[in-house]
Write a structure and sequence with these properties.
This protein folds into two domains: 134 residues, Aspartate Aminotransferase, domain 1 (Alpha-Beta Complex); 255 residues, Aspartate Aminotransferase, domain 2, CATH 3.40.640. The chain is 40% helix and 17% strand. It contains 15 helices and 17 strands. The strands form five sheets. The chain has a seven-stranded mixed β-sheet, with helices on both faces. A hairpin with a 2-residue loop joins strand 11 and strand 12. The longest helix is centred in the N-terminal third of the chain and has 21 residues. The structure holds 4'-deoxy-4'-aminopyridoxal-5'-phosphate.
Length: 415
């Protein structure tokens, strides 16, 4: 065995990191909070809350324009945040990092800008049946405008992409494949590098929805083999309202602006306008500066942890949850993906998921119940929705035990 790297961070201790997240000390009624709704949004460590507060308290100004100290400081913090994201994604350059409101806006940007410029009648976009509505509806909108067609890639009973069906669908009509790195409804980790390699075989671009992936795994856009990668700050321990589109430089250079306004222009006249260079071409209007600063703090926090140990801890929580689930006869897992991250979706007998969610909430256990913005996937399984427990690095086996104690109670009350 090799000696530990001298710069290796201290071993990961979930109990210790809980201290970094003030909200975890909250109570729900007379019970401690067990927050198992991290796929919807994660909680924020103190360093993120402080970074946002300090930004407003000490540095607030508009970026890139004014000739004064505060604006210089705000601009430096904003651009340093972009550089932090570039490092987080292993991006070859900072200019390929475009701020958006989140994953949803990032995908809408690509669909409207790239899709609007390139799609023609007869062209096809493939999207898996497990995509979030954010990776379906923007494609439907642009297909309606261009005459292209959105075609679903089937999902198997296990809740995995049917790779054989995917290969059969890939032909020269396919211009882009839209795929989620991790399913927000089932936790499935998709074989993105393999899917990207196959897409390249027919000359199709690949857009990866990283909304769930970025929270659980270190990201390397080159290793994923994608052309576009989108993620949201609020799911990686950062603020809401900020997210990122990463794209290959030559594609971004060739794409028309998404929105018009200040910042995205080089010159404006009534005869016509010219566009700013990357990344500003896609950043019309005053950006969410505090959000960018907060997101950078979140990424620094994550990178300060032993990521391998965090991945192992989250895998342990999921394995333990599955073990406990097997002991509860009324519980039916939805999907059984062989590669999964952070999410366990299930039904309890014939109880409505919303009723299960309400009982759990009364016992201080926060989960999500419903279709998880993945109605086509729910239709695929013939169900209206599921109960979903989703984990973050600060969750513990004790919280999983509390989930199962609450589920036993839900069985008594509802079945
Ligand atoms: N894709 C996936 C897989 C998601 O889980 C989510 C958030 N639930 C989104 C896209 C949309 O993210 P946002 O609402 O932050 O834009």
């Amino acid at each position: 065995m090799s000696a530990p790297h001298p710069l290796r961070p201290a071993a990961f201790d979930p109990q210790a990191v809980r201290e970094d997240f003030p909200i975890l000390a909250r109570r729900v009624g007379d019970r401690p909070l067990a927050y198992l709704d991290n796929a919807a949004t994660s909680q924020k460590p103190r360093v993120v809350i402080d970074a946002v507060a300090d930004y407003y308290r000490l540095h607030n100004a508009n970026v890139h324009r004014a000739a004064h100290l505060l604006s210089d400081e705000a601009t430096a913090a904003f651009e340093e945040a972009r550089a932090q994201v570039a490092r987080f994604l292993r991006s070859p350059s900072v200019e390929q990092v475009i701020w958006t409101r989140g994953t949803t806006e990032a995908i809408n940007l690509v669909a409207a800008s790239w899709g609007g410029a390139h799609l023609r009648p007869g062209d096809r976009i493939l999207a898996t049946e497990m995509e979030h509505h954010s990776n379906i509806v923007p494609w439907q909108l642009i297909c309606a405008r261009t005459g292209a067609e959105l075609v679903p890639v089937p999902v198997t009973e296990r809740g995995e992409v049917d790779l054989a069906a995917y290969e059969r669908l890939l032909d020269e009509r396919v211009k882009l494949v839209a795929v989620t790195q991790v399913s927000n409804a089932l936790g499935t980790v998709n074989p993105v590098p393999e899917m990207a390699r196959l897409a390249k075989g027919v000359g199709a671009l690949v857009l990866v929805d990283g909304a769930q992936g970025a929270a659980h795994f270190p990201v390397d856009v080159a290793a994923l083999g994608c052309d576009f990668y989108a993620f949201s700050g609020h799911k990686v321990y950062g603020p809401t309202g900020i997210g990122v589109l990463w794209g290959k430089r030559e594609l971004l250079e060739a794409m028309p602006p998404y929105q018009g306004g200040g910042e995205m222009i080089e010159t404006v006249s009534f005869a016509g306008s010219t566009w700013n260079r990357l990344p500003y071409k896609f950043e019309a209007g005053t950006p969410h500066i505090a959000g960018a600063v907060g997101l950078a703090a979140a990424l620094r926090y994550l990178e300060g942890l032993d990521r391998e140990a965090v991945v192992a801890h989250e895998a342990d929580l999921l394995a333990y949850t599955r073990e406990r689930a097997a002991e509860l006869p009324a519980l039916r897992p939805v999907g059984e993906p062989r590669q999964a991250a952070g999410i366990f979706s299930f039904l309890l007998g014939d109880a409505h998921p919303a009723d299960v969610g309400t009982v759990l909430d009364q016992l201080g256990v926060a989960v999500r119940a419903g279709h998880h913005c993945a109605q086509p996937l729910m239709a695929r399984f013939g169900i209206p929705g599921t109960v979903r427990a989703s984990f973050a690095l600060y969750n513990t086996r004790e919280e999983v035990d509390r989930l199962f104690a609450a589920l036993a109670k839900a069985c008594d009350l509802l079945l």
